[in-house]
UniProtKB/TrEMBL annotation:
It comes from Streptomyces asiaticus subsp. ignotus. Belongs to the azoreductase type 1 family. Quinone reductase that provides resistance to thiol-specific stress caused by electrophilic quinones. Transmembrane segments: none annotated. Keywords: Flavoprotein, FMN, NAD, Oxidoreductase. Homodimer. Its cofactor is FMN. Binds 1 FMN per subunit. The keyword Oxidoreductase applies. It is an enzyme of class 1 (oxidoreductase). The lineage of its organism: Bacteria, Bacillati, Actinomycetota, Actinomycetes, Kitasatosporales. This is FMN dependent NADH:quinone oxidoreductase. Residues 3-163 form the Flavodoxin-like fold domain. It comes from the Bacteria.
């Protein structure tokens, strides 16, 4: 049975988080199709990873038999996280926009799992072609043609880091204007916000069904 790696990063719980609610929709549909499948779940807000340090970074560039005892210890977490990514048949990531970019907890995860010559930096990486669905929620509007288009550093960055870096096959699901119902200044955008939210849930469910069907036929 296929394995889903599910990563949430929002600092807000449950339905208070747009990204969590949409990743939950994807996961619910995925598990309905694969009730006996494996789900590896990491809540990086509840259990943040340590930032990559010099020992762990250097260990990634050294052959395993050339690492010092200290490097072996420091690399253990990177090995675990990279192994989870390599095991996954599908990757699901909640990536809300914080101050125009991704949560620092997600950046820490990326720093650990991007290992040159293994998951990255090669024509064919150990993660090449793995489908990745990224729920990139944001409180405002940052799409093409909007006044804040140039402030968008979530899909631009993750498209490069996950797609070009790790070789994942990335699909973005983007619920926008999520603050419209709580910000009086955005009151005239509530209808657009609700439509964006509904579409994000529909897109997530549809993508889960599509991938479930693909793996069922494999």
């Amino acid at each position: 049975m296929p394995t889903l790696l599910h990563i949430d990063t929002s600092v807000f719980p449950g339905e208070a988080s747009a990204s969590r609610s949409v990743t939950a929709t994807f996961r619910k549909e995925w598990e309905a199709q694969h009730p006996n499948g494996t789900v590896i779940y990491r809540d990086l807000a509840a259990e943040p990873l340590p930032h990559l340090d010099g020992l762990a970074a250097a260990a990634g560039f050294a052959a395993p038999d050339q690492r010092s005892p200290e490097q072996h210890t420091a690399f253990a977490l990177r090995e675990t996280l990279a192994g989870e990514l390599e095991q996954a048949d599908v990757v699901l990531i909640g990536a809300p926009m914080y101050n125009f970019t991704i949560p620092s907890t997600l950046k820490a995860w990326l720093d650990h799992v991007i290992i040159m010559g293994r998951t990255a930096g090669a024509e064919q990486t150990t993660t090449s072609g793995t489908p990745a669905i990224v729920v990139a929620s944001r409180g405002g509007g940052y799409g093409p043609g909007t006044p804040r288009e140039s402030f968008e550093f979530v899909t631009n960055y993750l498209g490069k880091a996950l797609g070009d870096g790790l070789g994942l096959d990335v699909t973005f699901v983007v619920p926008e204007l999520t603050l419209a119902r709580s910000n009086p200044a955005m009151a005239d955008l509530v209808e657009l916000s609700d439509a964006s939210k509904a579409k994000a849930h529909e897109d997530a469910a549809a993508k889960a069904k599509e991938l479930a069907t693909r793996f069922a036929a494999a």
